């Protein structure tokens, strides 16, 4: 089964691609100025990756951009969790820089979540080891807040990564928290179309059932497409790649599950680890 990407306005895709390619290089050079610049770097890397995935999903440049985003998002969350002082930070490319510890608008739950998914997708799993040790309470200090389900989702992923016995219960708690009546910060559409499907995929990973996982994967991709097909979202580069689904599929693939669904949203080049060959 193949689930295509939603229709976006791509008449100027080459110029958009070139713009973000230039912006990415500038962002790499600016990270030494402030920790928040790591978040800006990750955002620009993801936008570049979105266009790269459309133009050539089998390019090493796609992995490069996603890897930069993974390192940047992990680093900005790590800095928020460290004692006062300056620390060496590597953003996935270039020379390490010294940055001060501290909370900022990018050291948020959503940064943690995307950093986690990109870490496993890019096979930089030491980043996931680091993220698994960051207390959710630290992420809640960021001015960028999320609904409670996202923090519970993070705790479920941390337990999953550590192989903790309480993982199933944490997954169930995260799913319950997506009740529309509990959504106060984000949108109900995002919770139901994106978060619910990611949480269900995690549950299917726990079951280690390829059939159930693929059934959930189809639903997740269909909901992702539905969500990002909305008029006000269709041109948002964040929708061009399904970061959460990609990360979970990468874990499933590494565990030996057969992935029976193809989609522009989850490039095989990434989830199969072809960039390592």
Keywords for this structure?
single chain, 277 residues, mainly alpha, two-stranded parallel ribbon, two-stranded antiparallel sheet, globular
Q: Could you tell me the radius of gyration in angstroms?
A: 18 Å
**Cα end-to-end separation:** 26 Å
Number of domain units: 1
Q: Unreliable segments (pLDDT under 50, ≥5 consecutive)?
A: none
The helix fraction, in percent, is 55-70%
Instruction: Provide the spatial order of strands within the biggest beta sheet.
Output: 1-4
Q: How would you spell out the order of helices and strands?
A: EHHHEEHHHHHHHHEH
Average the pLDDT over all residues and give the rounded result: 97
The portion of residues forming beta strands comes to under 5%
Number of helices: 12
The number of distinct β-strands equals: 4
Structural class: mainly alpha
- 3D shape: globular
| Main pleated-sheet profile | 2 strands, parallel
Commentary on this structure:
- The chain is mainly alpha-helical and 277 residues long.
- The strands form 2 sheets. It has a two-stranded parallel ribbon with strand order 1-4.
- The mean pLDDT is 97.
- Helices cover 59% and strands 4% of the residues.
- Helix 3 packs across helix 4 and helix 3 (60-81) runs parallel beside helix 5.
- It has one domain.
- It is globular, with a radius of gyration of 18 Å.
- The chain is built from 12 helices and 4 strands, in the order E-H-H-H-E-E-H-H-H-H-H-H-H-H-E-H.
- It has helices at 13-30, 36-55, 60-81, 109-121, 125-131, 136-139, 148-162, 167-176, 188-207, 210-228, 243-254, 268-271, and strands spanning 2-3, 86-89, 97-100, 262-263.
């Amino acid at each position: 089964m193949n689930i295509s990407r939603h229709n976006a306005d791509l008449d100027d895709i080459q110029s958009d691609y070139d713009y973000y390619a230039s912006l990415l290089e500038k962002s790499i050079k600016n990270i030494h100025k402030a920790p928040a610049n790591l978040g800006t770097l990750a955002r620009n890397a993801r936008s570049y990756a979105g266009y790269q995935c459309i133009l050539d999903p089998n390019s090493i440049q796609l992995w490069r951009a996603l890897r930069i985003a993974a390192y940047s998002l992990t680093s900005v969350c790590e800095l928020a969790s460290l004692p006062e002082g300056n620390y060496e930070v590597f953003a996935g490319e270039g020379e390490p820089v010294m940055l001060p510890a501290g909370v900022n608008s990018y050291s948020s739950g959503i940064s943690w979540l995307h950093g986690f998914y990109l870490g496993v997708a890019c096979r930089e799993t030491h980043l996931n080891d680091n993220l698994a040790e960051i207390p959710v309470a630290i992420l809640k200090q960021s001015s960028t807040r999320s609904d409670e389900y996202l923090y519970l989702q993070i705790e479920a992923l941390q337990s999953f990564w550590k192989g903790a016995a309480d993982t199933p219960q944490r997954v169930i708690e995260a799913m319950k928290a997506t009740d529309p009546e509990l959504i106060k910060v984000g949108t109900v559409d995002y919770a139901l179309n994106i978060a619910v499907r990611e949480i269900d995929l995690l549950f299917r990973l726990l079951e280690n059932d390829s059939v159930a996982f693929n059934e959930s994967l189809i639903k997740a991709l269909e909901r992702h497409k539905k969500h990002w097909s909305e008029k006000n979202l269709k041109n948002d580069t964040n929708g061009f790649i399904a970061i959460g689904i990609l990360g979970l599929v990468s874990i499933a693939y590494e565990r030996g599950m057969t992935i029976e669904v193809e989609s522009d949203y989850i490039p095989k080049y990434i989830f199969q680890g072809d960039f390592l060959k």
